[in-house]
Write a structure and sequence with these properties.
Order of helices and strands: HHHHHHHHHHHHHHHHH
Number of helices: 17
Oligomer: single chain
Structural class: mainly alpha
Number of domains: 1
Mean pLDDT: 77
Shape: globular
Low-confidence stretches: 192-212
Largest sheet: none
CATH topology: Growth Hormone, Chain: A
Keywords: Membrane, Transmembrane, Transmembrane helix
Number of strands: 0
CATH class: Mainly Alpha
Distance between the termini: 32 Å
Amino acid sequence: MNYKERIILLSNNLLSGILNSIYFVYPSFYHFNSSIYFFIVFISYFGSILSSIIFGNIKVNGNNYIKWSLVGIAGPLLSILFLFYPNTYLYIFSYLLFSFTYYSTYFVFLLYYKDVKLNFYFNIYWTIGEIIPQISLLFVSIMLNLYIISILLLLSILVVLSREIYMFLFTEAYELNLLVKIDKIFSQIDHDISNFGTLVPLFEGLLYPINIRKLKFGYIELYNFFVLIGFSLVWSSLVFLVDKINLGNIYPLLLFINGLYTSIFYKIYKRTINNNNVNIGILSRLSMGVILIIFSVIYSVLSIPINGIIMTVLFILAAYSWTMFQFFFDNFIIIKYPEKFGNVYFFRNLGGMFGSIILLFISLFNGLILSLAILGISIFFFRSYFKKVI
C-alpha cells in the first residue's frame, strides 16, 4: 500500500473506531432511553444497506478507488457536526450518516484488492480506536473528544488530497478543465429542462460506476437475510442489556474486546471454503441466545446482578460467531460468485435491520426465543443446498 492508502485505512478505521465507541456511550451519558440501542443496531444495518447498494457494486479501478474510499473519512467528519447538540433525533441521523459512509472504504478496498484478509487490518485499527474513549473520557469531555476527532479527520483528507488541492489552487489548466466539466453538467441540465424531461440522465452520469440493477433476490441472498435476522436479535439483545444493567460506561471496553478477538480470528482463519465453519458460526450465535435467555431470567426474576465478566465472555463469543460465519461465507461468495458480493451484503444487512427492529414490538425474552428458532432452522434447512455448491 502507498502512503495515501495507509492514511485512509488508518483514519477510516482508527478514528471511526473512536467515534463508534462515543456513539455507544453518548446515550448513556445524556440519559437517553435504553431502547435507543435497538435503533443503533437498526441504523447500523440500514446504513450498511445503503452503502452496500452503492459501494458494494461500484466499478473500482486504479483511477477512482482513492476518491471513493475518502467517503469513509468525509462522512464520519460530517456526522460529528450533528452530535454537538445532544438530541435524540439528531443523534439518530448522525449515526445513520456515519454507518452509511464508513463502510465505503471497506467495500472499495475489498473490491479493489479482492482479498478478505483485509478484514484483519480494518478490524485491528478499528479495535484500537474503540478502547481510546474508555481512557480519554476519564480526562476530557465527550465534546472535546469530538472536536479532536474532527480535526484529525479533516487533516487526513487534506493530506490525501494535497496534490489535488495544490493543482486546484495553482494550476490554471486544471482549473479550466474543471470549469469545462461544470459547464457540461449545467448544459445537460438545460437540455433536460428544455425537453421537459427529468434529471435522471444527469444523475446517472454522476453515479456512472454504480450498478444497482445487479441486486437480485436469490437463494444465497435469502440465506443471508434469514440468518442475519437471528444474529441481529441476539446482538441487539446483548447491546440493550449492557445499558439496562447499568454497565453503559464500559461500552468502549466491551467493544474493544469484541473487536480485538474479531481481528485475531480474522488473522488465524485460512482462506478456504468450508460450510461446516459457517454452521459453527451460526451454532455459536445460537448458544449466545441460550445464555442470554438464562441470564435475563436470572436478572429479571431472581434480581441477581449480571457483572462485567459475563458480558465480556458474551462479547468474545459474539466476535467468534460473527467472524466464523462472515469470513467463510464471504470467501465462498468472493471465490464462487464475486458478482453477488454487493447483493449478499444488501440482504444480510436487511435481515439484521429486521432483527433489531423486531425487538421494539416484542419482549426481549420472546425475541431471543425467536432467534433460536431461526438460527436452528437455518442450520438444517440450508445445509443440503450448500453441500451441493461448496
